[in-house]
């Protein structure tokens, strides 16, 4: 087993592709294939399965990834201890929901831009299910979710903060003039909603279904900023995290619709895998969390 083989193995996991990993590392695809074949022969196991255009880890491959990351971290520690650190790829990979990217991550970008310009930030967006998949396959270092409290013995949680999800509408809608309404009073209004795989949209629909009610949205998109603009321009209503509309509520361009028989709280959560090598960049992010910047 050689260090270059481990580097190739980890890069393939990250990029889910032999060819992309080879290109990133400056090898030919044949060379990377040979390296992995040598590892599989040495340990008498198969590390990857081919699924369509992607490669995914086998169960032994997932176990091997833990050891590979640990070995590479120790190699890096040796270089650092001897005063000869190798050239590092200073990068922080974050998986995030679109809404959190738009409204909560800008201070993080600003911090790294001003204080650590040597660090490359890579942000991938997706549904909660997609983000968890990215975490499990080492495609990101951390994920940033808005969801019910979630726990898993394989995850370490850096952040958990409650966030209300509220009904907001154009001030021109008559429903905003009422001090309080019932959930059923909203069903006929023109709703602009996030896509169905959004966790808080799903929770809302589950609550409605339990009471034999249903919302049929006029418009759907995964872009929260687009929804906010459209409900202002079209006298619409939506169901969004309070942090996403905080500025608009203060300015009066949107109004909260107070519902007597429904409320929801989700939690902003930042997680990483327990077997993940905690990089210096991840430690910087943790410091931002401790300083309440996130």
Give a verbal description of the structure.
About 30% of the residues are buried. Helix content is about 45%, strand content about 20%. Helix 1 (about 5-15) crosses helix 2, helix 1 (about 5-15) crosses helix 4 (about 60-80) and helix 2 packs across helix 3 (about 30-45). The mean pLDDT is about 90. It has 11 helices and 11 strands. It starts with a helix and ends with a helix. Strand 7, helix 8 and strand 8 (about 220) form a beta-alpha-beta unit. It has helices at about 5-15, 20-25, 30-45, 60-80, 100-105, 105-115, 130-135, 200-210, 225-235, 240-250, 280-290, and strands at about 50, 55, 90-95, 120-125, 140-145, 155-170, 190-195, 220, 235-240, 255, 265-275. Strands 3, 4, 5, 6, 9, 10 and 11 form a 7-stranded mixed β-sheet that branches. The protein is α/β, with parallel strands linked by helices. The protein is elongated and about 70 Å long.
- Round the mean pLDDT to the nearest integer and report it: 88
**How many β strands by DSSP?**
11
Helix content: 40-55%
Largest sheet: 7 strands, mixed
In the predicted model, the low-confidence regions spanning at least 5 consecutive residues are none
Shape verdict: elongated
Structural class: alpha/beta
The arrangement of helices and strands along the chain is HHHEEHEHHEHEEEHEHEHEEH
Summed up, the helix count is 11
């Amino acid at each position: 087993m050689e260090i270059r083989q481990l580097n190739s193995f980890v890069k393939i996991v990250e990029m889910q592709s032999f060819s992309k990993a080879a290109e990133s590392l400056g090898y030919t695809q044949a060379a990377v294939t040979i390296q992995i074949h040598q590892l599989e022969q040495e340990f008498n196991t198969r590390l990857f399965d081919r699924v369509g255009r992607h490669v995914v880890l086998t169960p032994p491959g997932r176990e091997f990834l833990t050891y590979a990351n640990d070995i590479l971290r120790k190699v890096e520690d040796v270089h650092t201890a001897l005063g000869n650190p190798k050239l590092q790829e200073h990068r922080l990979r974050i998986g995030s929901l679109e809404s959190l990217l738009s409204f909560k991550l800008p201070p993080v970008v600003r911090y790294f831009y001003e204080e650590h310009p040597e660090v490359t930030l890579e942000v991938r967006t997706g549904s909660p299910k997609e983000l968890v998949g990215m975490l499990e396959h080492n495609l990101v270092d951390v994920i940033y979710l808005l969801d019910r409290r979630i726990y898993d013995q394989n995850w370490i949680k850096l952040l958990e903060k409650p966030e209300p999800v509220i009904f907001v509408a154009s001030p021109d809608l008559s429903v905003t003039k009422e001090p309080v309404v019932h959930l059923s009073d909203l069903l006929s209004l023109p709703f602009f909603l996030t896509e169905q795989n959004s966790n808080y949209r799903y929770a809302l629909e589950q609550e409605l279904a339990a009471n034999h009610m249903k919302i049929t949205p006029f418009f759907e998109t995964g872009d929260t900023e687009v929804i906010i603009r459209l409900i202002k321009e079209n006298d619409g209503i939506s169901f969004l995290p309070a942090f996403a509309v905080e500025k608009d509520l203060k300015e009066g361009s949107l109004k909260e619709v107070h519902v007597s028989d429904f409320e929801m709280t989700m939690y902003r959560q930042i997680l990483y895998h327990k077997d993940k090598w905690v990089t210096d960049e991840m430690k910087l992010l943790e410091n931002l969390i401790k300083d309440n910047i996130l």
